């Protein structure tokens, strides 16, 4: 087993290197968030003195005065609403694309792809003007709409791929068993496509959660400003201090929901959920 | 329970391909009807039209006296067993079997009772809470059957339900399917490409080729009185041997000799070239036959190419001096046989003949042997149309 041991060691080293490379910025961020304002520039990787002041300052003053709580609520709300709407619409669209032959099917797929490729920055200017005239500027809806535009193609593509994997026979079996097409979809296809649905949901959520471009351009107040945008408006304790510590703390806080979201859904993304449907 | 009647039912796919052409078939209440034919003959399409999974292009379909052409599958009250079973992987065996009843709004206690009952019939009781992924092929197959029988539908439709099982299990399940059907007495349409399954299972068998129904009858009828070359070659294993022949007056000239045309091989006063068919078991080692060879049939010499002994039977392959037989219907069969066995048995344009002899025969490979052919069981076919020339009323005993 000499060869095996050696291979194992090589892989371990490789994986460790990748992990270190990926995690150093995160650890650095955590380290910064735990330092006191004086120690920020001390060039130490491990803080000599741990303090939670930066976290406390984020939530100080309750909903009204804290610079962070309102944006956090906005972020969660906007990302969740976007995810739900996007997944519902995308699953209907993807089901139709995967199962039905209809004129314009290729056009829809090509259109979705084109939108996914479209540079978002070029839509910001027109949207800004339109949203101001329509009264959507600085509202949740004003962000949800462009997020849907850019997340739907992604969700449709992911779901079409998953729906295509589900054997046709299962729906026909359901039809013969007495199910209406809608029942066959909700009781047989959706449960089976669950891994795909969750994958798409995670991708859409992360997209909406991470967006900075639309958030900074289409909002002007805490009424709808999301965390990535709000971070840019953080101020230090006085006009001479950098808000580095608070920004680091806020960045850590907004990373947590993503990790929770992924871990929660990952348990559902188990391979082999469809095993045993047909021969094999 | 109900009868199923297909009246000139036709299926034309959007690309213009005619999968089923004017099919007339009437399946009686409680009957076990087999649709058999080579792949692509339209048998599955016909079944799917009965199920409502394919639209009917023209013609009329009635189930239990009701016109159902335009009814969706859920309103036809039929149950279907799919080739790949199509079990719902996210449901347990119990939920799989009860799904149809649940959709129909049956109350829980009744569903439970019916599922338990079906599980008992199929010996699935201890697997009720497992998921399909954890079951063996045979168990999955039984769950698929169970899903059909809990509903007590008007008819069962089965699309090659045994083709995914290994050979041994297939034979075992074949018996169980037959038992189950005769116990439930539910009208059943069963699609298969395997002529052995067709012959052993069905009350009646419908043979299809290229979308056209060739012949419908009991297994014995199809075996003894095939209507054309295709049915003759398809039914029976090893397949019927075909050879060119010529009729002149009351005599038939075969590559293995000349015989009188007697009543059983009525050629309807025809003259000229025909195709003759003899089943392998209508040959015998001349020594074994003894006295009978004087009464009827012909004795001829053949050089033996190959001898296969199965213990109970002896399969002997030999050649005749002829150029072989050409026919579209046979070409179809040849392809099918090659797919199935990958070996000989029936080959177009070759004159190989298979004979099934008594195991006591002393025939050896490479030797020249005296063989006897029972020409009373001779089949004659028109070389153009492939239709049989035998009167059709001939009553030779089944020897299948």
Explain this structure to me?
By secondary structure, chain A is mostly helical. Chain A has two domains: 2-51; 59-266, MetI-like (MetI-like fold). Chain A contains 13 helices and no strands. Chain A has helices at residues 2-34, 53-59, 62-65, 69-99, 105-117, 121-134, 140-165, 168-176, 181-192, 194-210, 213-217, 227-231, 244-266. The model of chain A is unreliable at 270-280 (pLDDT under 50). Chain B is of the alpha+beta class. Chain B has two domains: 4-222, P-loop containing nucleotide triphosphate hydrolases (Rossmann fold, 3-Layer(aba) Sandwich), CATH 3.40.50; 238-381, no CATH class. In chain B, 26% of the residues lie in helices and 30% in strands. Chain B is built from eleven helices and 20 strands. Chain B has helices spanning 43-51, 93-103, 108-121, 137-149, 167-184, 195-201, 219-224, 229-234, 286-289, 292-295, 328-341; strands spanning 4-12, 18-27, 32-36, 58-63, 66-67, 78-81, 155-159, 187-192, 204-209, 212-217, 241-248, 251-254, 257-260, 272-278, 283-285, 298-309, 314-319, 352-357, 368-373, 379-381. Chain B has a six-stranded mixed beta sheet with strand order 6-7-8-3-9-10, sandwiched between helices. A five-stranded antiparallel beta sheet of chain B has the order 13-12-11-14-20. In chain B, strands 15-19-16-17-18 form a five-stranded antiparallel beta sheet. In chain B, β9 and β10 form a beta hairpin. In chain B, α2 (93-103) packs across α3 and α2 (93-103) packs parallel to α4 (137-149). Chain B is elongated. Mean pLDDT of chain B is 83; it is low at 340-349 and 392-400. Classes of the chains: A mainly alpha (280), B alpha+beta (400). The interface between A and B is medium-sized, with 25 and 33 residues.
